[in-house]
Amino acid sequence: MTVSEIRGHHPILTPKAMGEVDRAAIQSGIDGYRLMLIAGAAISACVLEHYPEATGAIVLCGPGNNGGDGYVAARGLAEAGMPVRLYSSVDPERLKGDAATARDDWQGPIHSLADLDWRDSEIVIDALFGAGLDRPVEGAVAEAMMTVVSSELPVVAADLPSGVSGRTGEVQGVALSAEHTVTFATYKPGHFLVPGADYCGDVHLIDIGIPQREIDAHDQNLWLNTPEIWSDRIPEPKLSGHKYSKGHLGVFSGAFSHTGAARLAAHSALRAGAGLVTVLAPASAIASNAAHLTAIMLRNVSSDEDLDALLQDQRMNGFVLGPGFGVGEKTCGFARTIISTDRALVLDADGLTSFKDNAEDLFSAIADGAAPVILTPHAGEFSRLFPDLAADTELSKVDRARMAADRSGAVVLYKGADTVIAAPDGRAVINVNAPPWLATAGSGDCLAGIIGALLVQHVPAFEAAAIAAYMHGEAGMELGEGLTADDLADGILSPSVLFE
What we know:
- The protein has helices spanning 15-27, 32-50, 65-79, 97-105, 139-151, 197-200, 212-217, 227-230, 260-271, 286-290, 304-310, 329-339, 350-353, 359-368, 379-385, 387-391, 397-408, 443-456, 461-479, 485-491, 495-498, and strands at 56-61, 84-88, 110-112, 122-127, 155-158, 180-184, 202-206, 222-224, 248-252, 276-281, 297-300, 316-321, 344-347, 373-375, 411-414, 420-422, 428-430.
- It is α/β, with parallel strands linked by helices.
- It folds into two domains: 15-219, YjeF N-terminal domain (Rossmann fold); 228-498, UDP-N-acetylmuramoyl-L-alanine:D-glutamate ligase (3-Layer(aba) Sandwich), CATH 3.40.1190.20.
- The strands form two sheets. It has a ten-stranded mixed β-sheet with strand order 8-17-16-15-14-13-12-9-10-11, sandwiched between helices. It has a seven-stranded parallel β-sheet with strand order 3-2-1-4-5-6-7, with helices on one face.
- Strand 10, helix 10 and strand 11 form a beta-alpha-beta unit.
- This is Bifunctional NAD(P)H-hydrate repair enzyme.
- Residues 226-499 form the YjeF C-terminal domain.
- InterPro entries: CARKD, Nnr, Ribokinase-like, YjeF_N_dom, YjeF_N_dom_sf.
- It catalyses: (6R)-NADPHX = (6S)-NADPHX; (6R)-NADHX = (6S)-NADHX; (6S)-NADPHX + ADP = AMP + phosphate + NADPH + H(+); (6S)-NADHX + ADP = AMP + phosphate + NADH + H(+).
């Protein structure tokens, strides 16, 4: 989906919560049919704007208010001079309330969905189910949807493409793939969570007149990750500042042949504004790291004793542990030692996998410690730390991230095309500015370094993870397709420059 133009503070509501908002708005005295008229007009306007050459519109209407939106859109297109054929998935006489009013205001014939046909150069309006569907599509409706899929006609969806769960983004058996989705009042998780995000095309958020107070009253602490969420937390350079006031980050390196990941993280951290960055390497990796480092410092940390000595320097106030470091008890021990201090920790890659058989030990250490901890799992690493959450198909990715944050006591940055960042207090954001070409080796190491840089600059953990994910995506967008992690580390801008 295209999100490059999305700006502002955008709460995301589940379909259930959005239904409560609708009911509350109507109970407050707002005319429900007026809301439907605005929604349907927005759908027809989208069609006329983006498909002026279409020879006609096929409007597919379902049994609820989503279908009512379709009737209103059909009337608007017909009044604009576009030929319209309207198909209903149910007996039109079964419609109730505002949907029935919309049906009565439609002056054209209503065909059965079983009689669906199509012609080249037509446009399809999908008003079958919208965001509320949370069960598999079956029978004649599924067959009609497959007919639309095989036609390859462009689709404009009302609220959400039919067959995509608005709560989880999962496809319910079969789904229509839209070029444009017109949604109302707030975004829903299914617009951004994969695979649903791939079915939405360009998402247009329309204000249909629901008061903001009703949306705020049903806020679910879930937002789109945009600068408006955390702009007041962006670290600003001060004239009186010096390198230590901008934080000192330590990045642990793996052995001789596993040093590149740490250097990517370290370089990214320096670019992201950390005042000093030191690669902490075992004796075997000192020479290989020294050959590649200039502005980044280097120190031998091979043993528990070396780490204890390092921690005597209070100026080193944050660490990245995991990229290329190796899986094992040494990693676990280093993590527990750091967590027991007041130093911030980004636990990534091997740092996460090392706890796959004793995750509760990690969570207990976090609970007993005072320092902020950020866990950055991709799907595989998440399933190692939280196997029960990963296996529960009823949960959305947002649900999983929130439950993982609550269980672990850490901020969880659950990576992917639909990265979700969740805090133990229930706050969560979905990050959507990352281009697909960020899926390249070393990209996650760069992200870990950015997070570490923000933590040592005293950005709170949740905001540090959210800002870093956004910075990571912006760098990827700026560099373009074909980037490597080396390019990415060089292309990161400090947040004070990026968001000036």
